[in-house]
Amino acid sequence: MTPTIHQQTARLGLAISSPVRLRALNLLSQRPWRVSELAEDLGESMAATSAHLKVLRAACMVSVEKSGRDVWCQVASGEVIQLLSAAHRAAEALLPELREAAREAEEDPFLLHHLDFETLTAEVARGKATLIDLRPAREFQAGHLPGAQSWPYDTLAEAKLDALKDQPGIIGYCRGPWCLKARLGVETLNKRGIPTKRLRAGVVEWQAAGWSLTREPQTP
Fold first, then answer.
1. 3-state secondary structure 40-68
2. Which pLDDT value is given to residue 1?
3. pLDDT of residue 173
4. What is the largest CA-CA distance in the chain?
5. What is the spatial distance between Cα 107 and Cα 97, in angstroms, rounded to a whole number?
């Protein structure tokens, strides 16, 4: 490799060197976001969020588009999702703190162990498993695992769950392996008498593995 190739590749490293930018990429992998609402969810000012997006845009990882008064941003390509997934896997494999956290996470009684995506897809298609998406409804509409039903985490405490009571093999997922809402959502369902397992993966891991999402018509 020439030094120029190393220099150009290092731009990607710079772009993902911030915890805030990594979180932003995970959110943008779920759906397009208005810059203003992304800033609110990140807990950052508009100025700080715009600065982070500028770094991601410089690395060609995020695209930004103006629509009326709104400015929207989204991941630029599937390669960004693959890089994000690979970075998470590498961090878990290499960093002692994350290795220990992953080991402890394996002890979660509701975690679904040793189920590959092909088997999961077949089980859902045959009606032997029920996938529920715990993310906000707009993220579900933007793209979800095939066959999944939308049950946003924030609605579970008060939602009527009768429709889930006779569903076979319920499996919940949210924004990825370390998503707290996935863990809390599955715990809530089990406490309310709906036996549910937690899929450690989300749409990032699903797409990075080469699988397609199902997309719903977008609502305003």
1. HHHCCCHHHHHHHHHHHHHCCCEEEEEEC
2. 58
3. 98
4. 62
5. 16
pLDDT, position 220: 46
Report the first-to-last Cα separation within the chain, whole angstroms.
48
DSSP 3-state assignment of 156? coil
Mean pLDDT by 10 residues, the chain (220 residues): 83 95 97 97 97 96 93 96 96 94 90 92 96 97 97 94 94 95 96 96 96 78
Residues 125 and 195 in one domain: yes
Domain that holds residue 34: 3-80
Only one residue has tokens 């997934």, namely 85
The string of DSSP letters for 88-99 reads HHHHHHH-HHHH
Half-sphere exposure of 13 (CA within 13 A, CB side): 6
Enter the tokens of residue 191: 């406490």
* Structural domains counted in the chain: 2
- Whether 117 and 206 have beta carbons less than 8 Å apart is answered as yes
Angle between helices 19-30 and 35-42 (to 10 degrees): 130
pTM to 2 decimals? 0.92
Looking at the fold, whether 112 and 37 belong to one and the same domain comes out as no
